[in-house]
Amino acid sequence: MKTRIIVFPGSNCDHDAMHAVANVMKNSDTEFVWHKQDSIGKGIDLVILPGGFSYGDYLRTGAIARFSPVMKDVIRFANEGGTVIGICNGFQVLCESGLLPGVLIRNQALKFRCKWVNLRGENTDTRFTNALLPGEIIKVPIAHGEGLYMAETEVLRELEANKQVVFRYVSEKGEVVSEANPNGSINNIAGIINKEGNVMGMMPHPERACEAILGSADGKKIFSSLARHFEFSRSLNEAQI
Amino acid sequence: MTNTISTLAEAKKTALELGLLDEEFEKIVSILGGRIPTYTELGIFSVMWSEHCSYKNSITQLKTLPRKGKRLLVEAGEENAGLVDIGDGLAVAFKIESHNHPSAVEPYQGAATGVGGILRDIFTMGARPIAALNSLRFGSLSEERTKFLVRGVVHGIADYGNSFGVPTVAGEVYFDPCYQGNPLVNAMAVGIVKHGETVSASADGVGNIVMIVGSSTGRDGIHGASLLASAVFSEAAEELRPTVQVGDPFTEKLLLEATLEAIGKKLVVGMQDMGAAGISCSTSEMSAKAGTGMKIDLNKVPLREATMSSYEIMLSESQERMLVVVEPKNVDAIKEVFTKWDLQAEVIGTVTDTGTVEISYHGEVVANLPSKALALGGDMTPVYQRETREPSYLKETMGFDLNSISDIDDANAMLRSLIASPNIASKRWVYEQYDSMVRTNTLDLEGSDAAVIRVKGTTKGLAVKTDCNSRYVYLNPYRGAMIAVCEAARNIACTGAQPIAITNCLNFGNPYDPEVYYQFTEAIRGMGDACRTLETPVTGGNVSFYNESPSGAIYPTPTIGMLGVIDDIANVVSSGFKNDGDAILLLSAYEPDAEFEGLGGSEYLAIRTGGKAVGNAPNIDPGGEARLIDLLVTLAGKRMLKSAHDISEGGLAVTITESCFSNMIGARIMPPSSKRNDHSLFGEMQGRVVISVAPESVEEISMIVRSANVKLEVLGTTGGRSIIVDGLIDCDLDELYSLYTEAIPSAVEAVVEL
Questions:
Q1: Distance separating alpha carbons of residues A151 and B452, to the nearest angstrom
Q2: Strand bridging mode A189-193 / A165-170
Q3: For chain A, which terminal residue's Cβ has fewer other Cβ atoms within 10 angstroms, N or C?
Q4: What domains lie within chain A, and their CATH numbers?
Q5: What ipTM describes this predicted complex?
């Protein structure tokens, strides 16, 4: 899984993503790409937009990062079907750059919140979630001040109808209730995917949940889903050749 | 104000206005060989000789603290932070610092820049910050002002640390009316660096280039170190808001990355961050340390406002700036690194052999001072030994008769009150606002006596903790300071880690008050004695005097920041009970030395007396604590402990209840014998830890405990969904838990009807 992690000024989960993908998941071909570069390189499988506070997020979160030189190439890559995952601030950047619909606004309680949450895999038929059982609950942390997902009614209807809502905040028992919703997101939405299925954004941090000693290893399932996807497509390609 | 002052009398008047003393002005004139100082020079002296920068009223005392140890790579006060060897070719830089007065007048920025300042102290040495902690003290939570300060301070710490990308992993929050007009905000940071990759705050190499990197210099924070940090607070303090710096965590994050990149490329000869006293402090301290001088041209300093005077530029405490000394051949390479991170890097001068700091502005020399006359430790800086007098209140507090308080008749109600008292109740409302996990090193322990951070690439972990029960220090400064050190060490050991060194933040009142100075000297004596016995040397820290409000001085608060190391994080112990049916044991390292000891200064007694601190602080025996620490580390290493939690505020009953909360596993115990039930349940005797172990291992553990010369009592068994102390307490755990978690949010977020 040839992975590139975009480093914006103010990214601060870039090293965490690197540790999870390179050291825990053992993908040796994982590198950082500096935001001022105009290309992510050739033959890339996965692009990660990591968490953090790009450009300080003093304006709207992700609003400046989308104009970084490298984003042009990330958008091209995504439009050509390349796999992109945006985590936390990365999700905000994806929404700002139009790769995903909707917006992320300040948490309902108007406070930053860092805690463990339960997520239910709503669509396990994606390249990001194929290692999850349908309806499986995973434990992953959140750490954000602006994670309330919101979109126009029509967009929401479409997201739900197309099964583009990939993760929802749920209780330990898997109920979609407001007590389990840490930020007030509409329909408890924690993560969504684009219609084509190659771009996903999520507020929770799977890269922080890849080792039991940190509290959970459930986040690995997202990276192993991707690894499985790329392996499968590669073997498919080889078979066709 | 023009820079030149025409008469000595006028200069003296200015000096006194800037907070300098008569005798200090005379000293300045003699240092200058009778020359009339310039306005800029007086400004520089006023900040460099302020209490905050010069330690003039504390340095003789600080020098009595143990500052050497086999793990110390840098002695206290030598660099921006202490540096401790942890093996594997790695070292830890750590330090705690106060930002009390700034936070009192502008809680958000005051607290934020407190975090920013301590982080810079760490990465200016070449270490990457991997954890932040904070120790916060406010007045009574029922006051509106307190709620405002709590919200602002927590928000400021959160915004700065979260954006910078350092996990805030531990801390303490205390409430007591003594902090009403003068809250304490102590911030600690911990960083990690490879041996040989550290950078010194020294301007070596005559002919080398002096650069300023990071933010532009503005008019914020002028006189922060002198007028704000080193003076007693009045009610007009809000007028001092312009002396509070304004923080920009985003720029700090860029500065971190650029700085570490420059150090990694071996481009840096020496570096110091700019905090208190800005350019004045960094230029004089760096050259004094190297025995060199500097020639600085202020016209080269990037400014936020073009019309700033030399005085303002020299005294500005604008944040996110560093002074860097580089070899001439590396100037372009340094510029390239900082430009990559969108930061400025400008040449502002050179290193000279004159021993003086010569400052020019608009082609004119505006200040020319011997660096050793300014910097801490220089032989020309003022040093005072102040008068001490035993505080008169001690007679009354020591003479308090515990028999005047009747024993409790409803222990259930008292447990509920204690669990919901702001000093004991859950601080989740606070810590959930901090990113505690970024950098993926924070072990998830669901409750532990200290936070544990793993060190990637090794099996090791660092245990960190801040601690101080200021009521004890108030009641008995010598014992209280020993307790602060020992409790911090005990907390570290409860995780299985070995305590190795401390940093301290000494918050006291006005040192010119002999009673305050008595508290200070006694606390230093206690701290020194405890640290010597525990072999945890003092690596540095900071002194914050003048913590007073019109209603009086705060309780003396020598906050301890303790660092510990555990060789294998697989052996880490947390504080929560793990399974039903485990044995609950009490370890006691030594005996009390007075009847009903542990009630004096307790949280329980405060509730019974309407918030008072009375009685004596409990007995403390550092030698016994050392035995207990070794025992805990041994048992953890053998993986025999399922949980360990020390007894502190609230006594045994609260300790057991907290251990129940982690996994909502109840407990049933027999109360230890005492003539008074309150003493048995809520007394805060020191040197005691509650552990839970597998029932089949009790016998083996007893033998190990006995051979360690520690007393062991079997208290009871884990299990159920309530806490039962036979004959005294029977409380439902869920009910207690909701009291515990709701106390703080419901108080802080309570909306006042207008």
A1: 40
A2: antiparallel
A3: C
A4: 3-240 (3.40.50.880)
A5: 0.96
